[in-house]
């Protein structure tokens, strides 16, 4: 039942909405908000209006992300103009020359938001360079470096639901420095830009210029050529691949890079091959979500594929599935991350290998055994790519991988997919599979079993309550072992880590979605060369750990 707002609250909401209408530059969102006002005092309309004006979308280290709708708590042209004006003000205050390069995906509003940003940039006298069409996020990240831009903006909500859009900012070499060149912003830059956004009083006073220069395909060709070059041209190329871009923008570039690298073109899921902002075949266009890869796995089975690969809609993430005697199995992000790291190590690629506090600790063990530098960061590629000057590889368990930091200083689902294909083809030539290589790694280092508890909420206060509960009353024991370490990363990050001798639990709110996440890991030694028994013990332990964690969070 919708609560009825009192008259004073309703009058205040009306006044704020009218003020917003007077400054909103977009006729469609003005009409949308007017329709809501015209329905007042209907309780449902009042609740809708209250939600739209409950807060301003905050410009954080992931930029902006929210539902497409009128009002300050939504993605719309007014919010984007203010964000662009704040960003340009911040850039001007640092006297940093250079163009702003802008990319966009195929979601609703993405092109219009990109053009709006370009017009704000040129209105300040700064050149704006627009990518030539809807393209993957890694192309924008590459373009920031390739074009020596002062900064970059990517309009995308990545793998969020269809009703969302977003706005991400990257810094060039001048402002990003040695570690942050071409990478997403980190604190305190996000807070400084947010402060500049709040300084924008009237959108009508923001000077607008022309829509900037639309770039040729040269920057796209540069990306594709260098992406294909991550694969050894002399290596085996016999591989049958099934692929889906999940209604996103990844297919043309992945197919071109894959064939340029010497592989056969993949079979592509026909119903998901073209960009579609409605994502009609999946409720959530995220390959981690249950059912999202069903059509891909059916195609892989029908075509006798050796490998199934999915990119998310902006192609910065990569999901991999393999055939097993019991059917197709999607690999966890940690499994793909370890396979890629192991492959690069075996190729003799030296430098720092990095991951995050929520990813498997197996990478740490591998680096220690092989004498390679290891770094561990907070979640997010903005931190991973800043882990070390000699970074050679970084990954996060949420299907993000950086295999070519000099090309893209961010996660890149296309180059990661190419390297997975190289590894799989090499193993195929030896009569082996990715599953075989995972077995060999487990036999050498032990079983590191990871899973995730992810709870989507309608009310963000539920996340706050769960984090407060586990902080105030952390469990004394997990898996019948004492909790030997409770590490609270607050206030630096809203992250709590619990450790025992054989288990680890990391709890944090999602940075991009209304979810509470708990990352579970159990380690199990392989006794008497019986890998199957070790995996069975680890699988049973992880289920117990899942129940114990849910109880500690109050979500069981």
Description:
By secondary structure, this protein is α/β, with parallel strands linked by helices. 40% of the residues lie in helices and 19% in strands. It contains 18 helices and 22 strands. It has helices spanning 7-23, 27-38, 43-52, 77-93, 110-123, 137-146, 173-180, 189-198, 218-228, 251-260, 294-303, 333-346, 362-370, 381-384, 413-429, 434-445, 461-472, 531-553, and strands at 64-67, 100-104, 128-130, 151-155, 164-171, 213-214, 241-244, 267-268, 307-311, 318-324, 327-330, 352-356, 374-377, 391-396, 400-402, 447-456, 477-478, 481-482, 485-488, 496-499, 503-509, 515-524. It has a 6-stranded mixed sheet, with helices on both faces. A 5-stranded mixed sheet has the order 8-7-9-10-11. Strands 16-22-21-20-19 form a 5-stranded antiparallel sheet. The protein is globular, with a radius of gyration of 24 Å. The chain starts with 6 loop residues before the first helix and ends with a helix.
List the helices and strands and how they pair.
Layout: H1 7-23, H2 27-38, H3 43-52, E1 64-67, H4 77-93, E2 100-104, H5 110-123, E3 128-130, H6 137-146, E4 151-155, E5 164-171, H7 173-180, H8 189-198, E6 213-214, H9 218-228, E7 241-244, H10 251-260, E8 267-268, H11 294-303, E9 307-311, E10 318-324, E11 327-330, H12 333-346, E12 352-356, H13 362-370, E13 374-377, H14 381-384, E14 391-396, E15 400-402, H15 413-429, H16 434-445, E16 447-456, H17 461-472, E17 477-478, E18 481-482, E19 485-488, E20 496-499, E21 503-509, E22 515-524, H18 531-553
Parallel strand pairs: 2-3, 2-4, 3-6, 7-8, 7-9, 12-13, 12-14
Antiparallel strand pairs: 1-5, 4-5, 9-10, 10-11, 14-15, 16-22, 17-18, 19-20, 20-21, 21-22
Helix pairs in contact: 4-5, 4-8, 6-9, 9-10, 10-15, 12-13, 12-15
